[in-house]
Specification:
Blueprint (H helix, E strand, L loop, with lengths): L2 E6 L4 H9 L5 E5 L10 H7 L6 E6 L7 H8 L3 E3 L7 H11 L8 E6 L7 H13 L4 E5 L10 H10 L4 E4 L3 H10 L3 E5 L13 E4 L7 H14 L4 E2 L10 H14 L4 E5 L1 H4 L6 H15 L3 E4 L9 H17 L24 H8 L8 E4 L4 E4 L4 E4 L2 H6 L6 H20 L25
Parallel strand pairs: 1-2, 1-3, 3-4, 5-6, 5-12, 6-7, 7-8, 8-9, 9-10, 10-11, 11-12
Antiparallel strand pairs: 13-14, 14-15
Length: about 450
């Protein structure tokens, strides 16, 4: 039977061997000639690795820089980046097969560009293309009430259509609806009982709403009118903000689905993500889970307020997660951790006993930094420092070189943040902020 080859550095070797032995997979371990595994790059590995016989795939540390393609070409074997922390290998193995199925989704995402009248054509197209890169299916052009867009609108819509974007217009004004429809938008948000007659002349698919969201009979009549016209439509019974009828609005969606089992439904989730002072990731996940269960196949989101920045990308990922969770009849847990941002599932760190054993292998003066829920650690061949305060750690290190002091200060601050938030800290590696993570400059980049 073929083996998985795990690569690591000298300091992580004991931990890797212990964890790998419990994985239940045939494996071999190669310890590269480097202390900290995260400092390896895929090209560095490719120049030095000699693959032993009996190996059919390779797993390298998750923090290794570079694309695995170079290593795959050099070895002729599939190469994967494992987790950032070797102690997460069991969970990583369990999720790998699941993650391979992540991608399809049932919920389409309408991403709103707000107040388009105040933006130039270039600004609108830039934002629209950015939303498309983040996975948006439809770009919604949001109009404010205080300024006409009848002159500028056709040009902007034409520019967006040239880029192959699917579009919707977000207005209740009949003149702007007609303009946008003639210019080529695909959806109209929205028609009401007062404007439903426009449906006969529109090419675009309308979203139907009522002035009073509780008027579901009125929504029924509008839907019946569209059926008579043999035209597609979407129903929206309006998501209300918290303390403005939120719970009742969820019940309305369930009732609308009961009355119209085959109809397409849309929910404007921005009414919660924008009006709830909380990180939008969790709010989005909850709402998309509701949509998945009820069969609401389209949502409208936006990114106006700071805590909702990134909501489009969050919504796309949430839709993928909830689709897979429903298909597998399981809670949306351990499918993808991208929506877990400020907190980690667990704080992974070596024990003090493991750190002291590690120190026994070190002979050089370079400091290795670690953090757990209680302590900050710094160790090299001569010193083992354990403190709760980063300044108390630094004062015992005897560092005089300014650049080295800057580096250690940066790492100790990062370790302090990780300890405060119960996040896993890894020297030379960025903290894990889920889908909000960003690459951290390394010393050689400065």
């Amino acid at each position: 039977m073929a083996d998985t080859l795990f690569l690591t550095g000298r300091l992580a070797e004991p931990a890797l061997r212990n964890v790998a032995s419990d994985l239940g997979v045939d494996h071999q371990v190669i310890v590269m000639n480097i202390g900290v595994a995260a400092l390896m790059t895929t090209r560095w590995i490719a120049r030095r690795l000699e693959v032993p016989p009996g190996v059919d795939n390779i797993v390298i540390p998750g923090l290794c820089e570079g694309d695995v393609d170079a290593l795959q070409q050099a070895t002729g074997l599939p190469v994967r980046k494992g987790p950032a922390d070797v102690r997460a290998l069991p969970e990583w193995y369990g999720r790998e097969a699941v993650r391979a199925e992540l991608g399809p989704r049932d919920v389409r995402v309408f991403a709103e560009v707000n107040d388009v009248q105040s933006l130039s054509c270039e600004q609108v197209t830039d934002r629209a293309q950015a939303y498309r890169v983040e996975g948006a299916d439809v770009i919604d052009l949001g109009l404010s009430l205080d300024r006409s867009w009848l002159t500028e609108g056709p040009k902007v819509i034409a520019a967006l259509r040239e880029r192959g974007l699917s579009l919707s217009i977000d207005t209740l004004d009949p003149e702007h609806i007609r303009m946008a429809d003639a210019a080529g938008v695909d959806y109209v948000l929205s028609l009401t009982p007062d404007t439903i007659d426009l449906a006969e002349e529109l090419r675009a698919t309308p979203v139907l709403i009522t002035e009073d969201p509780d008027d579901l009979d009125g929504l029924d009549r509008m839907a019946a009118r569209m059926e008579q016209l043999d035209r597609p439509y979407l129903l929206d019974s309006i998501l209300a903000p918290i303390n403005s009828g939120f719970a009742a609005s969820l019940a309305r969606y369930v009732e609308v689905r009961h009355r119209h089992p085959e109809a397409e439904l849309l929910m404007g989730i921005g009414n919660l993500t924008e009006l709830t002072e909380a990180d939008s990731t969790g709010v989005t996940a909850l709402l998309i889970g509701f949509c998945q269960e009820v069969g609401i196949g389209a949502v409208l989101t936006t990114e106006v307020i700071g805590w909702a920045r990134g909501a489009v990308r969050e919504t796309v990922l949430a839709a993928q997660i909830m689709h897979l969770a429903q298909r597998q009849a399981r809670p949306p847990k351990h499918l993808d951790s991208g929506l877990v941002t400020s907190k980690d599932e667990s704080m992974r760190s070596p024990s003090e006993e493991e750190l002291r054993a590690m120190q026994a292998q070190i002979s050089d003066p370079n400091y290795r930094l670690f953090a757990d829920a209680e302590w900050l650690y710094a160790l090299n061949g001569d010193r083992f420092v354990r403190e709760t305060n980063m300044y108390a750690v630094f004062e015992q290190l005897g560092v005089e070189d300014a650049s080295h002091a800057f580096y250690l200060g940066k790492e100790l601050m990062k370790a302090t943040i990780a300890r405060g938030l119960h996040k896993s800290y890894r020297q030379e590696g960025p903290l894990d902020w889920g889908l909000l993570s960003f690459p951290e400059p390394r010393r050689e980049d400065v």
